[in-house]
Design goal:
Rossmann fold; 45% helix; alpha/beta; 14 strands; six-stranded parallel sheet; binds nicotinamide-adenine-dinucleotide; UDP-Glc/GDP-Man_DH_C; 2 domains; UDP-Glc/GDP-Man
Length: 443
């Protein structure tokens, strides 16, 4: 099949490469000239395991092309995937300007039947807006060309995006059209050889399904974080409670790890966009509001614990930070708990020495050169001469550490672990003042 993908970010690029890899012919279009120039050379501007190899392999087969020309992408494919960003607007709703800009250019350039496939995460009712935008552009040209709009939300996770795309648990397609169902079945046929994964439903249900999934996952995280905050005050251990509840099959172990709050480009914006959608139809989504509020509070716990450990005296302290990305195996720092921590530390007059296996470039891009930020080459360099250590991301390479060594290099033996990586009793035996999440008395 011939497919066009608009957007070459985490979702667009992975979609384009994976579809080319199974034999489709794909043009991936982005408005960012520099990104496209790099991609054409086989350079991937983001870190995602396996993605560079996939881009290079499919460029070599000739089944994957990159362009900045919308007209070229529109002419190329019957299926037109929209995979551009939908960042939060000031009021928390999803900003649809990029989605609608793509819709407008499809309407401006199309010459024959197209299926516009919405892969971006968009509020219920967006397919209708996309339809109107395309129709308006066609009317301006004074032409009548048939087209369909369907919803095909993406569920991949950064860090395992290729694996998730290739082995999706389900592929949701929202459409009422038999023709679209058959084209989407053809597109995804290579992925459904072993078992049926295509779930067809109405467009509105498909749009809502994506938000419902992310809201459910965010709820699980805020729930366990609420339990962690309680265990700190009740003399219990959240890790024991986690194992105790996870063994119940109705609850399960997935996604109930306590920590310093969820981040990334999806959960925070999607929970608030869904709450906004609810308020627009006169419904107060109290659970969603609470999930977001618990998360905002949780992100502040890193700084609060550190501040209490130093009696509020953080000015001129040097704090080591391990992990900047919002989760391991990505360089994405959007809404990461580390950012809340860094910015609070700077406001308090502290200096930071940071290390992340993949997000150092992103950190430099976000914060530039500053006297109070030192980008370190490894975890050892970050703690060298620091007063305390904070762990923000559970990268594999932070999981084992020689506590005696750590005790020796830190000027004060304070470790705030936002990811519960270590056994508190071992850390304490080594002389560290170790503060994890929900494991022992709060400060
Ligand atoms: P991103 O910010 O990484 O990439 C978006 C890309 O779209 C950018 O490269 C940008 O230059 C490009 N773009 C903007 N306007 C354009 C236009 N008019 N034409 C062509 N390209 C244009 O975004 P992302 O993380 O890939 O997310 C895309 C969508 O997918 C969002 O709605 C997001 O919520 C959703 N989503 C993201 C993930 C994830 O893990 N990142 C997972 C599932 C769904």
């Amino acid at each position: 099949m011939k497919v066009a993908v608009f957007g070459s970010g985490y979702v667009g690029l992975v979609t384009a490469c994976c579809l080319a890899d199974v034999g489709h012919h794909v043009v991936c279009m982005d408005v960012d000239d520099e990104k496209i120039a790099r991609l054409r050379r086989g350079e991937v501007p983001i870190y995602e395991p396996g993605l560079s190899e996939l881009v290079r392999r499919n460029l070599a087969t000739g089944r994957l092309h990159f362009t900045t020309e919308a007209a070229e992408a529109v002419a190329f494919g019957t299926l037109q995937f929209i995979a551009v960003g939908t960042p939060p607007d000031e009021d928390g709703s999803a900003d649809l300007q990029y989605v609608l800009a793509v819709a407008e250019s499809i309407g401006r350039h199309m010459r024959d039947f197209k299926v516009i496939v919405d892969k971006s995460t968009v509020p219920v009712g967006t397919a209708e807006k996309v339809r109107s935008q395309v129709a308006e552009a066609l009317a301006e040209r004074d032409v009548e060309i048939p087209f369909e709009v369907c919803s095909n939300p993406e569920f991949l996770k950064e860090g395992s995006a290729i694996e998730d795309f290739n082995h999706a648990a389900r592929i949701i397609v929202g459409t009422e059209s038999e023709r679209v169902r058959s084209l989407m079945r053809e597109c995804y046929a290579p992925y459904i050889r072993r078992q049926e994964k295509l779930v067809f439903m109405s467009v509105r249900s498909a749009e809502l399904t994506k938000y419902a999934a992310n809201a459910m996952l965010a709820t699980k995280i805020s729930f366990i974080n609420e339990m962690a905050n309680l265990t700190e005050r009740l003399g219990a251990d959240v890790e024991e409670v986690r194992r105790g509840i996870g063994s119940d099959l109705r609850i399960g172990y997935h996604f109930i790890y306590p920590g310093c709050g969820y981040g990334g480009s999806c959960f925070p914006k999607d929970v608030s966009a869904l709450a906004k959608t609810a308020s627009e139809v006169g419904y107060a989504a109290e659970l969603l509001d609470a999930v977001a509020a618990v998360n905002r509070r949780q992100k502040r716990t890193l700084f609060d614990k550190l501040s209490q450990a130093f009696d509020g005296e953080l000015a001129d302290k040097t704090i080591a930070v391990w992990g900047l990305a919002f989760k391991p195996n990505t360089d994405d720092m959007r809404e990461a708990p580390s950012r809340e921590l860094l910015e609070s530390l700077w406001q308090a007059g502290a200096r930071v020495r940071v290390f992340d296996p993949k997000a150092m470039e992103e950190c430099r891009r976000l914060y530039g050169e500053r006297m109070d930020l030192r980008l370190c080459r490894d975890r050892e360099a970050a703690v060298d001469g620091a007063d305390a250590l904070v762990i923000c991301t559970e990268w594999k390479e932070f999981r084992a550490v020689d506590f005696a060594w750590l005790r020796g290099v830190l000027r004060c033996p304070v470790v705030v672990d936002g990811r519960n990586l270590y056994d508190p009793s071992l850390a304490k035996d080594a002389g560290l003042l170790y503060y994890a999440v929900g494991r022992g008395a709060s400060l």
